Protein 1
Amino acid sequence: MNKLKVGIIGSGNIGTDLMMKLQNNPFLELTTMIGIDPESDGLNRAEELGIEVIDNGIQGFIERKELADLLFDATSAKAHFHHAEVLGELKKRVIDLTPAAIGPFVVPPVNLGSHIVESNVNLITCGGQATIPIVHAVGQIVEVEYAEIVATISSRSAGPGTRANIDEFTVTTARGLEEIGGAKKGKAIIILNPAEPPIMMRDTVYCKVTNEDFNHESMIHSVKQMVKKVQAYVPGYRLRMDPIIDGSTVTVYLEVQGSGDYLPSYAGNLDIMTASAVKVAEEIAQYEVVKTV
Amino acid sequence: MFGKEVIVTEVALRDGSHAIAHSYTVDQVVRIAKALDDAKMPFIEVSHGDGLGGSSLQYGLSTTNEFELIEAAVNSCNHSKIAVLLLPGIGTVKELKTAAKIGAKMARIATHVTEADVSKQHISMSKELGLETVGFLMMSHMAPVEKLVEQAKLMESYGADVVYMVDSAGAFLPHEVKERIAALRGSLDIEVGFHAHNNLSLAMANTLVAIEEGATRIDGSVRCLGAGAGNTQTEVLIGVLERLGIKTGIDFYKMMDLAEEIVAPILKTPQEITKGSLILGYAGVYSSFLLHANRAAKKWNDDARDILIELGKQKVVGGQEDMIQEVACMLANKKLSVF
């Protein structure tokens, strides 16, 4: 079967973890790793794996554009605006892992497939991927008036990109809670904790629903079913305890353990982004194959 | 220390928000701000306890929109300047711009003591907006001296006019404050500040040590109206500094009157060091956790101290209030499963 040729822009933590996940993928062939720092670990590893390395950024890809038809952008919101323009002109597909959010949002268990023809789709944020499915699941039982999420990640798993994009994280995630999660209003908070050994990524989801007369068992069942759906592509995603229902507030405590493909398993925040990105790319690849048949 | 000058910032209208579950009304803020202004307080900090944008299910919803409170304070003062607090990750640059628009003259940007680099965007914007900009390194007891200095220098490099060492948990002992403030004073070109909490009854002592070692910016909360057991009690601080010959420009009598007549009646119970706040200082846990821990203890039938000790063990940082209910629930379940 013809695999979809893909490339990664950004040789930092997220890009490199993505590269490791794409090895031996049945639908996707990783042909190139594009970065701007020739000394970066990501580019060195790419070379070791026999992947074409471009170390002068998107400019270098313009000259070798036949290498890939779909690009993952794992750089920063600011850089993505430029990349999106360039790749748009080259008619390449883009999966945006930054909080730039130019294209529509995709959260696999909620709306995968609805944006299959879009040329640029956005994965919101790690906190968004972890919590939006839960808000959606709650919303299946009772309408969510307000959803608030608190993402707590280990300092070690927050690279320079994350740190420069703190505001963007909160704003983009809040939008995702509303547009995809279905909450009338959303809010997102992010906290970095430097404890050693590094803490596992955790997310707390508060949903204030419009009316407290709902079946508690159905609510808990809906949330647990959704957790299973996410676990299908993020095996380390789990509830820390059963959801707590207090009148019209549903509180869900989640934890994300990474697969350890690149960074250690505490960096579940990276893992959920890269696993989601791979899932979306696989859907696009299969769609493209069906198209050409 | 005779002849020294110290600039005081009153935090009851921000840190104190934690102690009254963020229930400030415009009327209360106006009365307090007017009295502080009359007493010539240089800076008055007004925001949700967790800074701009802090009103949330995580930290507690504000009874009154904080921007209304800020604006009311601005309009009540001729002398005092209004400051706001902002924690990147909770509030954003957008809130900062709104605060500047409605008349705030100072922004204090707070991060955990090891995470200064998340504040670059906010410190730069604050300077761009023409605000006096203060870097605030919270939970400073959780990092060694070298780390504190390194992070303070980062904030200085981003454009901060002042960097504060913040004893969010009220956990510091005087010799620890001495060592750190001396190191900061020796490494920075900008002013050094100190924000104390009184959980171990050491706020005043720590503050005096900080001043000795070169801190020129000090926070206080009138009648101790701050998180946990409160901060250095402002009206007491003014009296002590006067005895030491240190200038603040603040009217001692007017501060005492304000404390007794306006602030004391707001407090349901006086700000004392109770079991909960003592454990905060002892275990090194963020002071704003107190009311949440007490509430969770009641709900889950735990001892609040057990919850707080566990949070200290897990090295929880400021902002992690969601851990409180989870720990309370788990402790309760453990007790049940023993049977």
Note: The interface with chain A takes residues 56-58, 88-90, 92-94, 112, 114-115, 117-118, 120-122, 142, 314-317, 319-320, 322, 325-326, 329-330 of chain B (CB under 8 Å).
Protein 2
Amino acid sequence: MPLLARLLVKTALIHLALGFTFGGLMLANKGVPFYPALWRLLPAHMELLLVGWTVQLALGVAYWILPRYWQGGRGDTRGVWLAYFFLNSGVWLVILTGWLGLPPFWFLLGRLLQAAAVIAFAANIWPRIVSREGLG
Amino acid sequence: MFYLAAALLIGAILAARSVWTLPALVNGLGPVYFHAFLVGWITQLIFGVAFWMFPVLNKEHPRGSERLGWATYILLNLGLALRVMAEPINGLRPQAIWGWLLVLSALLQWLGGLCFVINSWGRVHPGSRRRQENKT
């Protein structure tokens, strides 16, 4: 597995562990209330598991497994590096906006970064989606 | 597949509230619907495919620890089944038994997720040198 795929997949695994931890704490707190403020973890729980885990894992596996160029392997990686940084800063910006009570602008910026990440990734990966004969 | 079918059936039951008057127990099925879909189907499908497709760890243990793989499966499904049963009942008639079953459910699912992360982490590696030369 190439470096970028490993980075994406391992960061996704960290987000999975964190998202499951938050979810477990909230569910336990629902059963036997011990710290009501735990409900504030709900947006972070959803963000970590839907974007930080599921989307990021899909990007990592796609980068690893989609057809490679005949010469040049996976080609120019800059778009995927950009996607990695945009996606993760987007996830944490959205989470921190809620936790720290930042102005809504930062929430919007987080979402825009996530969208930019997927666009950068799609632009990079698009030419690799070809048939066995090399047809797009 | 079982959880996908179950989630869609629960979704249909939730939708039926707009047509018929259903028992109050149905109102507590919202979180069960989401988690049957997202944990029972999507997460479990990802876990299964990752266990199958991630790079092999080594010749002796190609898929890492089979025990951790089984633990992931059993803990996740047992935890989720407990949630499906206890959460609506606890919402309708909160009692210590249902509350503690939710705590147990949270613990089991969290441990299941952790087992997956631990077992998958080592399998996200660069691969053998010969393979690397072929792949760039």
Note: Chain A has a mean pLDDT of 94.
